[in-house]
Amino acid sequence: MTTLPSSPIKYAVIGGSGFYRMEAFEETEELFLDTPFGKPSDAIITGRLDGVPMAFLPRHGRGHLLLPSELPYRANIYALKMLGVEFVISISAVGSLREELKPLDVVIPDQFFDRTRGRTAESTFFGEGIVAHITFADPVCPVLCDALEAAGRELDGVTVHRGGTYLCMEGPAFSTRAESNVYRQWGMDIIGMTNLQEAKLAREAEMSYATLAMVTDYDCWHPGHADVTVEMVIDYLNRNVATAQRIVRGTLRRLAATNPTSPYASALKNAIMTRPDLVFPETRRRLAAIIGKYLPL
């Protein structure tokens, strides 16, 4: 296994579709980590962005090799925890379910809605002899969202929307028209395939998490726009990447200047339900990065 950095890395970015590397990243190093849940999606790249230490992980792997249902969500978040990460910015390509959320707009959602199937195991670090129930009513970090919003609003020509619900669907196919219209009736705002599992795991790992959602299309509900095609999505993905890069840089500058403490640094304090003496030593070792301060070896 790769040796971990000598100092914790407080900030991390998970890059979504089209976002496979960080521009202006300096002093970089690739870390190939092993976790109790297998290997992450790709090497984690560490370095400095405008002097701020950070880690970058391409969610689908460089070259886009993994389906949303194939992602090693637990390994990804666990690996970031091993590095000491406290704040996670998740870049995500999404479809819009609202007229006012236009392609190339930026959305910072504050809620998630689960429409995935078969991802239970990848949605929690717990089970197999240890039970925990995190509080998840408000799934994103307001400190991180504030920084993302401020960084986005300082950019000319970029429209930023704060708030809204991200519907997480199974994929890999895009929605049917009937599904898209039902999601709109439910009051959903944007649709994607990956962020809910990350958000749950980040909370269990006592990290702050927020999504920077980059709108690529109107899903397939909009009568005045063509149905979603891969070509359309890729075109807008490429145009969104530059915007996301600039927002990430502005956000990190703000975070580094204020040096905030994660509001969720004690999210597990009262969440572990299993009686400590019943938790096996092997379970304590496997989850050491997550539960070590509450259930030491």
The radius of gyration over CA amounts to: 19 Å
- SSE order, as H and E? EEEEHEEEHEEHEHEHHH
CATH homology group: Nucleoside phosphorylase domain
Low-confidence stretches: none
Number of domains: 1
Structural class: alpha/beta
Q: Strand percentage, roughly?
A: 15-25%
Count of beta strands: 11
Keywords: Glycosyltransferase, Purine salvage, Transferase
Domain Nucleoside phosphorylase: 10-252
Family: Belongs to the PNP/MTAP phosphorylase family. MTAP subfamily.
GO molecular function: S-methyl-5-thioadenosine phosphorylase activity
Describe this structure in words.
The chain is α/β, with parallel strands linked by helices and 297 residues long. The protein contains 7 helices and 11 strands. It has one domain (11-290): Nucleoside phosphorylase domain (Rossmann fold, 3-Layer(aba) Sandwich). It has helices spanning 73-82, 142-153, 177-185, 195-204, 230-258, 281-286, 288-291, and strands at residues 11-15, 25-31, 44-49, 52-58, 87-96, 106-108, 111-115, 160-162, 165-169, 190-192, 208-217. Strands 1, 2, 3, 4, 5, 6, 7, 8, 9, 10 and 11 form an 11-stranded mixed beta sheet that branches. Strand 3 and strand 4 form a beta hairpin.
